[in-house]
Amino acid sequence: MSVSLDVTINAFNDRYLTELHQSQFSRQPAVEVLQQRFSRVLFDSKVLYLIIGTDSGLLSQYVSESDKPDNTRYVFIELPEIIERLGLETQPHPQVRIETPDSWERALEDFHFNEYAFLDRVRVYRSLAAQSDYTKCYGPLIWDTEQKSINLCWSQAYSLGLKAFLQTQLLNAADYQISSGVLEGQYKEQTALILAAGPSLNDHFEWIRQNREQIYILAVSRIAKILIREKITPDFFVHVDPQDIAFNVSKEALQLSEQVPLIAANHAQPLLVSQWQSNVYFSGTRLPWESDLNEPTLDLHGPTVTNVALSSAIAMGFTRILFAGLDLCFDKQGFSHAKGSNEASSGPSLRSDTRRVKTNLGEEADTSPDYFAAIEALEAQAASAHEHDIQLINLSGNAAHINGIDYISTNQLTFPPTQKVSVKVSSPTPEQRHLYLLALREQLGSVQQSFMKAQAAADKAKELSPLLLTQNGSINPEIQQKLNTYEAEIESLSPPMMRFCKVYGLGEFLADTNHKDTDQWTHIDILDFGKRYFGTFSHILKEVIQLLEFVGDKISLRLEELSISPNIDALCKGWIKESAFLRAETWLKNHKVNFDLNTIEELRSKMKGEFESLTLKAESADQARCNGGATPHQLVDKATRMLQRNRIEELKSILSFLESNDRPEFHSGYTSLIKAYIAELEGHNQDAIREHQSIIEAQHMDIMEASLQRVLAISSAEKNHAQTLQAIECLSLISPHYLKHYGKFQRTAGDLAGAIESMTRHYEFFPNDTYNLLNLADIYISISEFKAARIVLEEALHHQPDNLAAKRLLSEFPLLDND
Predict the structure, then answer these.
(1) Residue 38 and residue 127 in contact, taking contact as beta carbons nearer than 8 Å
(2) This prediction's pTM
(3) Beta strand extents in 343-436 (DSSP E only)
(4) Is the pLDDT confidence value at 517 over 70?
């Protein structure tokens, strides 16, 4: 760490490292600053916070001394030099740890990281020092921590299975009738093109149209809107995620679902799966327990849908696999997604948790921790593919370089003289669908009955648990016997069912965990444990029973769709309840119905209107997600880094975002700031000064300091002393942190009285700033005010007794006490 570790004590007696914080704590007490920035985000219940930096121990102290939920934990990750310099305690509170970059992962076990990760309750935040990173010492720590936390949380969630995945697996069971295993090895000696959502996707559409007959296209479902605009129809869509957002970004794929089959994970978004109008090839088990209804499928895995698309293409037998839109980095304008996506429409990425990676052209680009995790997973997949003589080729030179994936530009790519194969997979007949649905209903009905019996036993056990101990603390044998009976009824669930319940409800069980050592348990703890354990089991079983009832209704609806004399009212109610409105259109196309034309048109119109309403809500939600992420602080932070790195294209992209954005928090001052940065990089310093002047005149206090800093830098470089002095004077009015610098400029300008006044005022705010005291003493010496110089130097030595410069200055002039 090549920065100064000088300590400042401000007027509010806060002690911190000067270079780390500069003016952050100079205007008000640190506790007030930290409260304003962190009080709403650092005190949620049942969260494990990983916090990068301690703000010179002030943030860790603020957290330690604040009221916080008993089930929340904090791990601060700080640079060892800072811990040592400030003498920070490693455990200032039982719920708080301060660790180094080398030790924090080991400390997670003490705070039961796995439980928090499974509950998706791990949060990563940056201290003020890490956010501003004035010294550039936190960058590697930020990247490393955020990258590792993503991998650790993803691995934990993947290994245990989150509730949302199990829920969607059951919700999809009625619609998963064709295993992806039927596709295995069907496309040997063929070329696949995987279309991902990166910004380079737009560069390849013309080439794709020209070579469409040579390739099979596997497209991630989220780019359907772009493909429809470009009039490109893939051979397969690939879809994985269960969350609502997965439907929001993929809903346009339903417009092509009559022509394009879907390769889907067993936990794919049910709204997409249930409304798909052609074959759906599922991967993974149909049911989340051992069952004869489960059958072999393609083994698909990976942290992103692109990883899953590659797994699919490899399993399907393709011997050459191309990629377009597989960037996994930001383009030169700072965009992360292809044009036409909501992400691209919302402007360039303002993320600061990025690092530079090499592109296929040997240049550098920013990537994020989640993209980097996908890169590592793809490298492992590529190594496996090479073992099977499968060639992987990325068509984009601006994409991140991935070991094992070659780069070949489209104008150098040739195709072998191989005829495309005709692969036909027959859909299940109505009779086969009917038999499967009956078997599924029978199995789920039996499971539901066993769960209902276990829930009744859990309810009874919950009521009896508080009576287990007598008043003298001994066990009531009669109550214990009854509890044993009820527990046996719960445990009578088959091992697969019991395992499913415990995994499904693991979050609830973990939330109720008492982390005391059992030998410390009181009678109250024992009684509370029994009541909570059986209560939690009852709640989980009740939730699963309700889920199975909903799945049962889906099965009944599917059977009604197959009926030769369907109840159209029941169908309408079922589709509306399920929000599966497109099923009506599929049903009308595939079934001959003996209803009058008006009834049919009324049904079609009603379902079409409901579907349009659903997609409009989804589109609105997705636009809000994309537009709501950027904050003014992120914008200034990103723009300042782009200025420092001479990346003018990204600044112009940010300017375009601002000029097309009507969010009130991005006022006109931000546009002026970015214009000033661009003008400065283009060498138009006077244009830059004019933009900064407009910010100052408009009193945009949120960016005034950033603007004045650039005026100071430009004026100093141009040796415009009057403008330089004016800028530093304005900065000193914003924050006393600048007073000593103002004093130095005043001294250079010959205003020694002004310099003494500024440095003296700085001392009032930062009495232990020995650097300022030495400069002040030097001025006094230069005007022969030796008594004042001696007082100042002795004050410096009081704060820093071994300061050699102060000792040397004292020794260079005689004792003048009697002068």
Answers:
(1) no
(2) 0.79
(3) 355-358, 364-367, 391-394, 406-407
(4) no
- In contact, 587 and 560? CB cutoff 8 Å: no
What tokens were used for 802?
A: 């071994």
Closest to 761 measured CA to CA, from 781, 783, 746: 746
Reply yes or no on whether the pLDDT at 30 is more than 50. Answer: yes
- pLDDT score, position 818: 43
In 492-522, which ranges are continuous DSSP H helix?
A: 495-504, 506-511
Gap between the Cα atoms of 253 and 156, Å rounded: 31
Residue for token pair 């049942």: 46
Q: How far apart are CA 288 and CA 547, in angstroms?
A: 13
Residue 316 in tokens: 């399907």
Rg for the chain, CA atoms, rounded? 33
In this structure, the dihedral spanned by the alpha carbons of residues 290, 295, 298 and 301, taken in order and rounded to 10 degrees, is: -20
> Residue 49: which H helix or E strand, with range?
strand 48-52
Cβ atoms of residues 74 and 59 within 8 Å: no
CB 256 within 8 A of CB 158: no
Q: What are phi and psi of 193, to 5 degrees?
A: -120, 115
Q: Find the helix or strand (DSSP H, E) in which 86 lies.
A: helix 80-86
Length of the chain: 819
Query: Which distant-in-sequence residues (6+ apart) come within 8 Å of 392 by Cβ?
Result: 310, 321, 323, 382, 385, 386, 404, 405, 406
**Residues 266 and 294 sit within 8 Å (Cβ to Cβ):** no
762, containing H or E segment:
helix 752-765
Q: How far is CA 760 from CA 346, 733, 773, 795, in A?
A: 49, 15, 8, 12
**SS3 of residue 97 by DSSP:** strand
Percent of the chain with pLDDT over 70: 94
Average pLDDT over residues 172-183: 96
Name every residue whose Cβ is closer than 8 Å to that of residue 244 and which is 6 or more positions away in sequence.
269, 621
Q: What is the dihedral of CA 627, 631, 636, 639, to 10 degrees?
A: -30
pLDDT of residue 417: 81
- State the Cα–Cα distance between residues 81 and 664, nearest whole angstrom: 42
The two three-digit tokens of residue 254, written as one number: 């339903």
pLDDT of residue 355: 82
- How far is residue 773's CA from residue 767's CA, in Å, rounded to a whole number? 9
- Rounded-to-integer distance, Cα 51 and Cα 316, Å: 44
**pLDDT confidence bin for 817, thresholds 50/70/90:** very low
pLDDT (tens digit per residue) in 246-295: 999 999 999 999 999 999 999 999 999 999 999 999 999 999 999 999 99
* Distance between first and last Cα of the chain: 46
Distance between CA 749 and CA 743 in Å, rounded?
Answer: 10
Dist. CA 725–CA 470, nearest whole Å: 81
CB 425 within 8 A of CB 491: no
Q: What is the SS3 assignment for 103-149?
A: CHHHHHHHHCHHHHHHCCCEEEEECHHHHHCCCCCCHHHHHHHHHHH
Residue 122 bridge partners (DSSP)? 48
Structure tokens at 386: 């090479």
Q: Is the pLDDT of residue 354 over 90?
A: no
Q: Give me the long-range contacts of 512-520 (CB less than 8 A, separation at least 24).
A: 512/536, 513/112, 513/115, 515/112
Comparing C-alpha atoms, which of 266, 609, 204, 658 is closest to residue 394?
204
